Amino acid sequence: MSWSSSQKTLLVILLLVVLALGAYSSWTISSLTFTINTMQGTLDDLGSMLGNYTQRLEGYLTVAGSTTVLPISQACANLFMQENPGAVISITGGGSGHGISAISAGYINIGMSSKNLTIEQITDPDPDLQPVNIALDSVAIIVHSSNDWIDDLTFEEVEMIFNGTITDWNHFGGTGEIHVYTREAGSGTLECFEKFFMENSDITGAASEKTSNGEMRAAVSEDTAGIAFLSVGYIDETIKAISIEGVEPTIDNLKTGDYTVKRWLFLITKGAPTTLEQAFIDFVLDEEGQEIVVQEGYLKLEWFQ
Amino acid sequence: MKREGHRSVLEKAIEIMLFLGAASSIVIVFLIVIFMMLEAYPALNPDFLLGWTWDPKKEMFGIFQTGVSTIYVGAGAIILATVIGVPTAVFLSDFCRYNVRNIIKPSIELLVGIPTIVLGFFGLMVVVPFIRNSFGGWGFSVLAGWIVLAIMSLPHIISISEDALRAVPSSYREAALALGATKWQTVKKVLLPHAKTGITASILLAFGRVMGETMAITMVIGNPRVSWIPASIFDRAKVLTSTILLDWSYVEIPSLHYHSLFGIGVILFLIVALVDVIAVYIIKEGMWKRITEVASWWKRR
């Protein structure tokens, strides 16, 4: 098929018209969205002023902070958005420190943190910040499943292995160099591990960095000389979890408080939460959200009340 | 006359649209480079380039050891790929039956389509345990990196080198064989010298690709927490790309750490750009030589 030149001209003109229309409509839509947003804001204010705000949950939530809490928030947000089509929740990481500073500055709606505001040394947290416990996390020491040189370690022994003082398995009656695996510096699991085990020293520079709990488990399950720390939710039969001073890192021992390595995970709002913020936090605390907590390998609140 | 004018307007419109398309891609590349340079600028100082240690925890951002490891890993992989790839190209172009070649070459080119994460996974589950079981140690090693990167760059080296070898005029082959040269002598004295340019270019292009590779290499190279220059091929190492990958998820914005990560990006960009420029220069040089040869041949006639 061949095109006559007038047909070609027509085609080009048509194309240009379509382009122009596209540009115009996208401009209109964006200004329209803006108007709607403004109106929505006004309506929200009106509604809360009158105290009869309806149960329709709509609007945007931005959540940021701890990468340890991120999987919980992400899974909860996906379900929450399914149930409330009007709500859009965007979740990013950045670490607990970022979560706290961003919520203090009011850049985001909800901050995620694996650090306790009252205990941890945090540079000027806003007095208005309201943390809510949503779950707990714990860390276990793991070795290869065939490793029968060690079953139990003291806190000091763990520290000496991970800071590079003990480098050979012959210290425990085995043979060969100890292969230490660690997590990238932003990891919440690493933070918890360092808090409980590495009081006075740093992890040895010779340790291999892995970027996720899954990768840590895979590395140790393959390496007979390996040792690593792992979020308790990831423990399975491919690796062997070591007991610490006679206490095994099981959910039961965590519930009774015998296994002491644990920390709280938080969602933080600035001032009183808005309706949507409250709805999301309630969702995480509710049965459905707590089920996700367990699925993601963390410890649900119910076990500790 | 009127119709002519009509056409020229149309041609002009199409020309402008094509130009806009081409210009936008250039502008985008340009903007990315500018953005990268601006973000990296605060970190680019002698402490960054010649600093011995990269340890964000201690606010130390020196890439010297990591950079040397990167070149060590990249160069080794390319040597390995060349040793395997160039003979394969010779085999495909001159020693292989036509229908066999038609099976082998597409299979090799299919290697290009394998996502790097899949190659990395292969390295993690096959190459690393193999090295650990055969030679002891961690398994995660420079050697594992070499093998994975060599597999990745093989198809580039083989297919470009083979094209270069096939581009040698068959009259050269025939002349050499007619003079009583063996097939091996023909390859050594006639084909390889003539295809030198193409083969070098293929190696340099593959080197550029290998330097920028991130995912697969991070999975098999071991990444010690504090980087060092590997002492042997069974030692672990940390490369520039894996440093960016491991650090970006928790970097504070803006901070010296953040700017230093962009600095690493700039260094990688410069290395790859430099290698590309050299490759292009070598190709052009080779073409120029060929042109002058042909010109002098014409003159002598």
Q: How would you describe the overall organization of this protein?
A:
- The complex is a heterodimer of chains A (305) and B (301).
- Chain A is of the alpha/beta class and 305 residues long.
- Chain A has 9 helices and 11 strands.
- Chain A has helices at 5-50, 70-83, 96-105, 155-162, 188-197, 213-222, 251-256, 275-285, 287-295; strands at 59-65, 87-94, 110-113, 129-137, 139-144, 152-153, 179-183, 208-210, 226-231, 239-244, 263-270.
- Chain A has a 6-stranded mixed β-sheet with strand order 6-10-5-9-7-8. In chain A, strands 2-1-3-11-4 form a 5-stranded mixed β-sheet.
- In chain A, helix 8 crosses helix 9 (287-295).
- Chain A is globular, with a radius of gyration of 26 Å.
- The termini of chain A are far apart.
- The model of chain A has no long low-confidence stretch (mean pLDDT 81).
- Chain B is mainly alpha-helical.
- Chain B has 2 domains: 2-42; 44-167 and 196-300, MetI-like (MetI-like fold, Orthogonal Bundle).
- The longest helix of chain B is centred in the C-terminal third of the chain and has 45 residues, at 256-300.
- Chains A and B meet through helix 1 and strand 8 of A and helix 1, helix 5 and helix 10 of B.
